[in-house]
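Appendix B. Chain record.
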Amino acid sequence: MENSLKSSLLISVIVVLNIIVWMVLITALGLGAMHLNDCPLQPYIPIYLVVIGATSIASLLLFYFNNTLDTSYFSLLSSSTIILLQLFNLGWFIAGSVWVYSIHTVNYDATAGEKYCKRAVYLFAFWFNSLGSICVAMVCTCGLYCVLLTFVKMAFRGQHLFHSQNRCYGVDA
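Structure tokens predicted for this chain:
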């Protein structure tokens, strides 16, 4: 009974996180597309939102499609495309961070001529990048923690990470 409760709780959390991610990506795509010319101070910000939204949505769709496939040519092609899209998204995220954070003072008034950016576009891009950076840092920290924990557990059990020529089937020669 307890395993089924944990399993249903895990599935519920994954579904809720999935819905949140989809909402954020669709908002990025739509906000960037609607206000494509509303940020002359840094015209790449709306383009950044459109591209990161579209490529991330495509990557998610391919991931879902890939989970329905058996090991085949299409699965390999889909996995390769997902990896390439994620590498592109990483580079695009870094470029978007440069574009967003390069603006120190933002004028939100459209009557200011060429030195303004639409408030909703800039603030969404700013918080998208800030929260994205926090999430990446948390994932890297948790991953490093898991690797370190694995090494410590192996050391306490007397297991070796790498094969040694001086040992034969786990017994020192």
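Further analysis of this model is presented in Appendix C.
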